[in-house]
Amino acid sequence: MTETGRHEQQYERYEGGSPEAERQVFERLAREIMEVQVKNQRAQGGGISRTFHAKAPLAVENARLRFHDDLPEALRVGFAQPGADYPATVRLSNASGVQQGDGSPDLRGAAVRVRVSEDESHDLLATSHPVSHARDAREFVAFAKAMAGARSPLQKAFGLFVKLPLAVGLGTANRMRRNVQAAARHTVDSLASETYWSRGAILWGEAGPVRYLLRPAPGSPPPLPCDPNDPDFLHRELAQRLARTDIAFDLCVQRFVDERRTPVEDASVEWQEAIAPAQPIARLTIPGQDLDDAKARTVARRIEDLAFNPWHTTDDFRPLGNINRARKAAYGASSAHRLGLRFSTAEPWQNRLLTPPAGAAFGLLNRVLPWHRLPLRLSLLNLVFLRKALRRFNLIDTEPREAPPKAQPVPEPIPERLRTERSYDGSYDDLSEPGMGAVGAAFGRNVTPDYRPDLFDTPNPVTVSRRLLYRESFQPATSLNILAAAWIQFQVHDWVNHRRHRPGGRTVEVPLPPGSGDWHNTPGGPPENVMRFAENEGLELPGDRPPILFGNVASHWWDGSEVYGEDEQTARFLREPDGGARLRLEDGHLPGGTNGIPLTGFSESWWMGLSAMHTLFAREHNAVCDALRAEYPSMSEERIYRTARLVVSALIAKIHTVEWTPAILATEAIDIGLHTNWQGPPRNWLNKLGLWLFEAHSLTGIPGTRPDHHGVPYSLTEDFVTVYRMHPLIPDDYELREHHFGQRLETVGFLDIQGGAAEAKIRKTGLANTLYSFGIAHPGAITLHNFPRSLQQFERDGEIIDLSVVDLVRTRRRGVPRYNDFRAGLHKKRIRSFEELTRNAETLARLKEVYRSVDEVDTMVGLLAENPPAGFGFSDTAFRIFILMATRRLQSDRFLTVDYRPEVYTPLGIDWVEKGGMNSVILRHCPELASLMPRRASAFAPWRTVQPAANGGPPDNGGPGDNG
């Protein structure tokens, strides 16, 4: 074991018994620190300030730190070498989180950033009292919350004598109060005359733990006379001092003696100099200068935007102890909040007060009456509380997190253009955590995984498919058209994609049940008694955790990546030559690829319906580009492209939210709820009162709010992937018709318009005729016995697969719980018999034949078997994932919330989204379809059918295509 490892093991004890348990505590405390900042902001007005040390009488970046030539051998570690001299940034501050006059009783602080190289810096933070008022991070945050927003003596007294004892107990509050009052009673005449002690210990290489302090160098002049009633007298004193001479501090270290007298975990115990002498090792010098000229003021403003953190260091100088370990998360969250990179959404008092009793009441009510059988306004409120419960219990972060915290360099500045543009791979959507939701980020969970390798083949997924999924006769969804089926695949390709091993790599083998015949796993391959298909590539997990974590090959954000691609190379390749803003098209269609499948952002599982969607929105992108160029002639082609992508992506999100989803969940409550998501509630005082009482953030519509991850970093989930397995929507055969006279062009099977055949077919048929043909035809109902036959034996990537078997196997192997456990995880009552699942006698008999008990039923089978609420196109259990994730996809995305604004999208862009919809997109590119589309319904509802004339017009066996 390394020396560092021994120190960690010997001196540090993790709260909760493990680094991961402690990390989760610290993440919650970090969110509470952000709430403190909001309260301080309200108290003083203006923007968000530092949680503590809000006011800085001095901020300079031309200081120097020089180590002494006689630095002891034991302390020569890393950058600490005899005679080493480094530039440093220094910020001296008042400790309060509320800016107040310099004469107010307060502690003072010092923050020093020592710049060793471009890749290495060390942040040293210290406060003007030798001991912390808090023993650990919990106490520290409790004190911050008690004092949040306190400005007057009465408010401060209330915080110290009432709020703090209620939070930590009377004895602890008394000890904390004595420390704070002792420090605050100290009269400060000059920040140059103060001594500053580190809060907690740091590692000093093989020398072990130390605490450090900055004390005025010997011979420092006394404070200069200043008016203590001047609210800025500390700054004026420093300005006068530096106008005459330098300011110097000695950097001293106190070395660890033993855990009783010099504890690492308890920051409230002073390391007394009689026990651990303070040994000078370096000199910090702030050179004489003018603090009030324009250059100095610019420097001070720049330093105010810096984020100091003791974890900006190297492993040799790693911070130690509970408070220090908490500081990485807390300081990171606080600085990101202050700089507008992370957001805190406080719950209004009335929501906090009324939510628990109202939520409990609806929970009791739902035991006898589900939400969808309640009167409209009650059902809407019921959904509010159901979503609140799901947000609280069903957002599970799976991404491996850093625990314990590790030292890191000062983060690179955020690329300026990514503040107003989407990145290619989804990074920097959340500016405080650039990798959140980016390509490669792990799928999260809504229900705790249940990984059962012993049940991978029980019951045999081939048997399940053939007895319960196989389409014996087509069951249509008569309230929709096939455009709805194409649309959801278009969306899923934007949201989720699991990487598969290449053909010939790792495979899954599913044995065929006895008597079921042979299977060909490759075109022209030999008959086999197993189905074989490529395995998903998982992410490695530490320890003995099961292999159920997968990265998303797509970005998790709603960013139009299926149109634009997931990386810069693809995105630029799809654009017109020479950096043009428009996407490449050939006679209005997508450019062809070498394999017959066109060039676009995502082209797997390609068929004619997908081609229609991609073609339509590639044209829409180009239309936005043309409009932007005409409206803003000075805008560069790159800016036009980036803005058009924002506009088209937001328009797609809006269409899905307020058009597709209400079409497939055709109830008034869902229609109102989803329109509320986008544009706020109806102009009805009762609806607005209900939301004000129970969920006030919904009063504006999500684009009018701030990003909110609801306590868990954003990702899409494996459960979300499971409920969006909607392959029954795909028919097996299609009739292509001409829209002018209604004549049949040809009848084709799905395999005739799939893969490389799709693009030739849509070019021959024409986009307008294709949209019309799909608009007048129904998709399949999302139910059992309706899985497309065409998808049960088709070629993909050189394999012949049965997609229904693949869907079953993937869900099992990814640890998605079986149906009954899935229901229970989403707060629905478990079913006790097959009869509770279906009323269909034939289906009931087959379920009993295939499964030994209801607890064995596959999630996909249960979701398809369940009787949905009236008007619903899928089950109420699946809907629970939907109501949780539908708002989350909008609310986590800053480009659909705080940065959904004219300054980012342009006024034209915002107007394009707000006035646009699926109907307007179709009619912009195929205006000849205007008379055929629904008048008062979504474009995903059945269109008007043109009746062929009895005499005249083109013959029934053919007709012209079009390039429209």
Automatic annotation (TrEMBL):
Superkingdom field: Bacteria
Pfam families according to UniProt: An_peroxidase (PF03098)
Gene Ontology BP annotations: defense response; fatty acid biosynthetic process; oxylipin biosynthetic process; response to oxidative stress
Record SUPFAM superfamilies: Heme-dependent catalase-like (SSF56634), Heme-dependent peroxidases (SSF48113)
Requisite cofactors: Ca(2+)
CDD domains in the record: PIOX_like (cd09818), y4iL_like (cd08152)
GO molecular function: heme binding; metal ion binding; oxidoreductase activity, acting on single donors with incorporation of molecular oxygen, incorporation of two atoms of oxygen; peroxidase activity
Sequence segments annotated as region (Disordered): 1-22
Database matches in InterPro entries: A_dioxygenase, Catalase_sf, Haem_peroxidase_animal, Haem_peroxidase_sf, Haem_peroxidase_sf_animal, Oxylipin_biosynth_metab
Alphabetized UniProt keyword annotations: Dioxygenase, Fatty acid biosynthesis, Fatty acid metabolism, Heme, Iron, Lipid biosynthesis, Lipid metabolism, Metal-binding, Oxidoreductase, Oxylipin biosynthesis, Peroxidase, Plant defense
Protein's name according to its UniProt entry: Peroxidase
Originating organism: Streptomyces avermitilis
Higher taxonomy: Bacteria, Bacillati, Actinomycetota, Actinomycetes, Kitasatosporales
